[in-house]
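[SOLVED] Need 3D model of a two-part complex

Original post:
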Amino acid sequence: MNIGVFDSGFGGLTVLRALLEHIPGADFCYLGDTARLPYGAKSRQTVARYATSSARFLVEEGAEYLVIACNTASALALDDIRAAVSVPVLGVVETGANAARASSATGDVLVIATAATVESHAYAAACAERGLRVLEKACPLLVPLVEEGWIDRPVTAEVLRIYMTELMEQAQAARFTPDTLVLGCTHYPLLRAQIERTVPRSLRVIDSAEVTAEQVAQVLGAGGGAANPGSRVRFFATDSVAKFAALGSRFLGRTIPRVDLVDLGG
Amino acid sequence: MNIGVFDSGFGGLTVLRALLEHIPGADFCYLGDTARLPYGAKSRQTVARYATSSARFLVEEGAEYLVIACNTASALALDDIRAAVSVPVLGVVETGANAARASSATGDVLVIATAATVESHAYAAACAERGLRVLEKACPLLVPLVEEGWIDRPVTAEVLRIYMTELMEQAQAARFTPDTLVLGCTHYPLLRAQIERTVPRSLRVIDSAEVTAEQVAQVLGAGGGAANPGSRVRFFATDSVAKFAALGSRFLGRTIPRVDLVDLGG
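Solution:
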């Protein structure tokens, strides 16, 4: 089984990392559309055009199953991607919402994400479809903190404390009784331990990278390719291959030996 | 005199704010190309196309003098803009470099800016032309901190302390004797007091919004329109007019009563 993973950048490598753990026998190809990021501020039409060309590239490279590890593309272009390719497609917003539904007893869920994801209200819509009430909060400082590599700095703990205090106050004001917090950005799994330390213990933290890998493993059956003696993983990016390898290794948790540059046009 | 001010977003409103103080008699029109931001990650050709269409719009609206308050457009497209319009054009990178030249006795200058501006090495080139040595540092957390409005939070002081300590260590390792620090991003004037509190007293802080206004006032002569009883200021944006008015007021230091939406195409 060859699994294609797509993101606008390298945040989706946290999803690939979880997939490698859950489906060790499969092969993987990862595409970061780094030349055209960020998707967050772009129109639905443009995101759909970028995401479908990226998805087609991965299928041409042999992907038999696609994981859309980009929140914006999952939110705005999942139907377009499904129409453009003939392989099964799963997006991180729906897997996060599935996991929230399975986790929450009270039906009240909190989501933290980038400003663009919050403004799209993609998690709110996906959670509402599953009968959940949702409070979404944009945390625009978390991505640059992760990209600076300041994971364990006191300043990051303080930023998290401010965001989480605000979120819990908003939840209280809205008479929410939340028991689940969804990490709605592929950068946030790197801060998972810090976030769990900051929020009340009554809140279960849903790491969308982790739950996406679990759900893919479930769909593909035990192992998804267990006969395969070792995974072959290939990396593609549309820009700045050196930066991708350097920064990406932090997200993947292991060295990225080679990244191939691809041109998908404007 | 009607002065046009252009930025990809609302950061350039710090430049407009300084211009209003220095040239109180002039009229102003401000354009934020918010639909197409950020410029930082885009190619020179694309930035030039966006910036020239924006500059032409301001001239059509009556601007007789253009201030390019966008670091990326100043760095990548100043010649294209000058070729596209018949009015004088001044960019924030050159005014910042001019002020650094006038300020520095040692000839060693520090610049802090966004990652995109640092990667363009625009300040390094402009300062080198003026016989200065430069050390540039990207500070990617400062823009989101300003946009969150966390100006006076302890967490912002701590982020500044980390960045400035790293910068001074790099300066020492490079055997620099800096006496001047250029704020190479139009968001940073909002943190000027905090930055001045963090750096050694021997370092003079150059606020590029402030020095741009001074240099425009100098070029246009005393007052630049002193006969005018009061400034007329018009605001245009290519997207999210409501967000522009709300967030922009913080940068301008006064309420923005009205923003007109304009369509400059893709």
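Edit: Strands of chain A lie at 2-7, 27-32, 65-68, 89-91, 108-113, 133-138, 180-183, 204-207, 233-237, 260-261.
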